[in-house]
Specification:
The protein is 40% helix and 16% strand. Helix 3 packs across helix 6, helix 7 packs antiparallel against helix 8 and helix 14 packs across helix 17. It is elongated, with a radius of gyration of 33 Å. The protein has 630 residues and is of the alpha/beta class. The longest helix is centred in the middle third of the chain and has 19 residues.
């Protein structure tokens, strides 16, 4: 056992060694570690940022905050001075962190108040925090997140991440908050907005890019109420029933810095739809609004019934009669992505066989994310039962477009509507072509030797044949785009086994069946053998895409007129010669048309409408179109 003298000597040497060591040092780390340490925050790692820890250290509160955070927050608030930006930021972040740990929503709202006071001092006072300061953007993020979480719904019947936007009395850790609601933003396209879901907490899968515009406010996805308001908007019945609207909620605090001193806060909830406002005026200055269009689109398509209806729509013809589309919405198949806006050019997307408008999601997301396109075009979608004959579906498309144009602009006062672009994929491309050509009597002459005018038909049958056999260019269609379109037929459709099987499985509309029977009876009585042979079996879309089908051959022989630019995007799989290639459904030689003013070959399968090369080509075509209308 060492003696007392030895112990003292050892202790002395230890003190000397300690005194000689360097108390300050550095450690070399990689750039990712260094950046990670500098960017830690309540939002990234559930820890205070270095800025907040610096303030706590200066006041000897760092350890105390972990032990008694509510007491520390109360002390910081009590000592807060109106122009103390360091304390305002720390209070905003630390209040958010405390709310995360305790789930006390009063602290979320307090975080929003502090962040707002930091970002938007009362008029006449300048903000010292600079945009280059990391706390600047973090303050926006804290406010945006805090609003959504502070107003979150905790009812049992609430959806996950649902936010309730309503006036009322709210408690704060340091006082009270009286909130009013600006009702002007609570409707969209004539429908009240309902069920607000915070997109801050949504992870998007299935779309390449997420278009989130940074700014102030909590980005939300809102549903439409089942019935429109008493003041119905033009085109309201053409908004899809499952639409999710990207909106932004703003909690605007009155005299925030001054009110922090007495604890009596007043605020106003304001709601802005992404397609109607991109900025908001705060203290007389325009501020960008945060919005998340991609998350709203993905939320709309999450578990969408459209996907399940694709095959059913081909075989049973039940898309518009299945209850999927409520009776108060348009029943002709044309639906809008946004409320009609004067001055925007319609971009009509027509899906292909056994498909649906949902398959345009990638293209729509990219186009909506391009402000130069979204500001000039409005997307319309056409949904139809793709098992029915091409001519029948084309007649429906033409009628639906004509009706829509008349509804929106009966007097022709909106010139942008007259510059329509129609894009069709696969079978949808054939429907698209039939909006732009003049067929004369070629289709009817193939059907019968008797002039159509001499046919004794019911009004219903006459209208159906007129729509399905006689085509003239729709005057408002100014450009068409074909994607993987079987202009000369699809490969599988050439098989009699396939067409026969499809004919047995596809359910045709009663109107078409009755008209066919009426025509067959009349043709037999008149001895019109050509007509009788053609009506021996009602045709399906697969029949009309058979390369040997005379009607398809007639359609292929009629070029799109030169005054309507036509563009082809053709998919070819593999690396072999393009001319001998195909996409698994359509051969290159079938998709190629001589009159196309541009042709792009995409090395992909038939469903190439969501590929980057296709989307970029569509973008190029739309910009080209704008140069012709300006």
């Amino acid at each position: 056992m060492p003696s007392l003298t030895q112990v003292l000597l050892i202790g002395g040497f230890a003190l000397i060694a300690t005194g000689c060591s360097n108390p300050i040092s550095v450690k070399h780390v990689d750039i990712q570690t260094a950046y990670s340490l500098r960017s830690e925050s309540a939002l990234s790692v559930s820890k205070p940022s270095e800025a907040s820890k610096m303030l706590l250290r200066r006041q000897g509160m760092l350890d105390r905050f972990e032990a008694e955070p509510d007491v520390v927050l109360a002390e910081l608030h009590a000592n807060l001075k109106p122009d103390d930006e360091d304390s305002l930021f720390a209070l905003a972040e630390l209040s958010f962190l405390h709310a995360e740990r305790t789930e006390e929503r009063a602290y979320y709202l307090a975080s929003a108040v502090y962040a707002w006071a930091l970002l938007y001092p009362e008029e006449g006072k300048s903000m010292q925090i600079l945009p280059s300061d990391p706390r600047y953007r973090l303050s926006y993020a804290l406010y945006n997140q805090a609003i959504a979480l502070g107003l979150a719904v905790d009812d049992d019947d609430a959806e996950e991440n649902e936010v309730r936007l309503q006036a009322g009395h709210y408690e704060l850790p340091f006082g009270t908050l009286e909130v009013s609601l600006d009702e002007s933003g609570m409707s969209w396209g004539g429908y009240p907005l309902d069920r607000f879901i915070s997109t801050n907490s949504l992870e998007v899968e299935g779309l390449r890019n997420r278009y989130l515009k940074p700014g102030i406010g909590a980005p939300l996805a809102a549903s439409l109420a089942k019935t429109h308001s008493s003041e119905k908007k033009l085109g309201a019945d053409r908004l899809g029933p499952y639409t999710k609207v990207p909106v932004t909620a703003l909690l605007n605090f009155d005299n925030a810095r001054a009110s922090l001193q007495n604890g009596n806060m007043n605020g106003r909830i304001e709601v802005y739809a992404e397609d109607q406002a991109s900025t908001v005026s705060i203290n007389g200055k325009k501020q960008p609004i945060e919005s998340d269009t991609t998350a709203a689109l993905a939320y709309q398509l999450n578990d969408s019934p459209l996907y399940a209806m694709e095959i059913a729509g081909f075989f049973r013809g039940s898309v518009l009669t299945s209850g999927l589309i409520p009776k108060d919405r348009a029943q002709d198949g044309i639906f809008f992505m946004h409320p009609y806006q004067v001055g925007k050019i319609p971009l009509v997307l027509v899906h292909g066989t056994a498909s649906s408008p949902a398959r345009w999601a990638e293209l729509v997301n990219e186009l909506n994310g391009d402000p130069k396109i979204s500001e000039r075009f409005q997307v319309w979608l056409f949904i139809y039962d793709s098992g029915r004959p091409v001519g029948y579906s084309a007649g429906r498309l033409r009628e639906a477009l004509t009706n829509t144009m008349h509804e929106l602009d009966p007097e022709g006062k909106d010139p942008a509507l007259q510059q329509m672009v129609v894009i069709g994929h696969s079978q949808g491309g054939l429907l698209t072509k039939l909006t732009a050509i003049d067929s004369g009597t070629k289709f009817w002459d193939h059907i019968s030797d008797k002039p159509f005018e001499q046919m004794q038909l019911s009004p219903e049958a006459r209208k159906l044949i007129e729509q399905a056999a006689f085509y003239t260019p729709l005057p408002f269609v100014k450009r068409v785009v074909f994607i993987s379109t079987p202009q000369h037929g699809a490969m599988l459709a050439a098989s009699q086994i396939v067409t026969g099987l499809v004919a047995k499985l596809v359910t045709l509309p009663l109107t078409l069946v009755n008209t066919t029977a009426q025509l067959a009876k009349m043709a037999a009585a008149s001895g019109d053998e050509k007509f009788v042979a053609m009506l021996s079996r009602p045709m399906t879309s697969v029949d009309t895409m058979n390369p040997n089908n005379p009607a398809l051959q007639i359609l292929a022989s009629i070029p799109v007129p030169a005054n309507i630019p036509a563009h082809s995007i053709i998919a070819v799989e593999g690396e072999g010669p393009i001319e001998d290639g195909d996409d698994g459904v359509v051969a290159y030689k079938s998709a190629h048309i001589d009159e196309a003013v541009s042709e792009l070959v995409v090395r992909w399968g038939h469903s190439c409408q969501d590929q980057p090369e296709t989307i970029e080509e569509v973008r190029r075509i739309l910009f080209e179109h704008l140069t012709t209308v300006e």
